[in-house]
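User: Hello! I'm new to structural biology and keep hearing that structure can be predicted from sequence alone. Could you demonstrate with Amino acid synthesis family protein? Please show me the input and the output so I can see what each looks like.

Assistant: Of course. The first part below is the input, the amino acid sequence of Amino acid synthesis family protein. The second part is the output, the predicted structure written as tokens.
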Amino acid sequence: MPDLIIRKIISSREEIYHEGGPVVDTPLLRGSIMAIIQNPFAGKYEPEIQGFMEDLKPLGLEMAQRLLDMLGGPDKIEGYGKGSLVGEGGELEHGALWHAPGGYAMRQLLGTANAIVPSSKKVGGVGARLDVPITHVNAAYVRSHFDSMEVGCNDAPRANELAFALVMTTGPRVHSRSGGLEAWDIKGEDGLR
């Protein structure tokens, strides 16, 4: 498969103390990391692309570890998600190559994550933004952890690039009060409840 060529890696960390209600003692942390890489398939249709997923696995592990370090380690993480932005010379399917390398990397480093990692992807021009969905790491139906984080870069993705993102959070939305399954009621049997 083609070489993995990284142009840049961007990371961001938010500390959320309130959303109009009382200030919390411990802020919710939300973090993202995004790698801008060359798209080896840009500008042409390539029928066999699955092998590139193997090449992306070390990148997924490196990004997940850096994100975990930024947010305080695996025992602090309660939510996660992933996403892909594909430059105009590529196709949506190139963004789908991030599903396994990004998702499995986070689940492997977290150790106890049972829920599927939610994801989004789109084709966009330079400066495109992507809302990456977030759910609880052990039970996708925990409503308090339904969230999203916007990612993007002012000079990416260029037509021949891919932007792969991972996001994690340390807890529910600040002031969550919409009901539904609560984190302390997780059974952990199927990654849903």
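User: So the tokens describe the shape?

Assistant: Right, they're a compact way of writing down the 3D structure. Reading them back into a model, for example: The radius of gyration is 17 Å.
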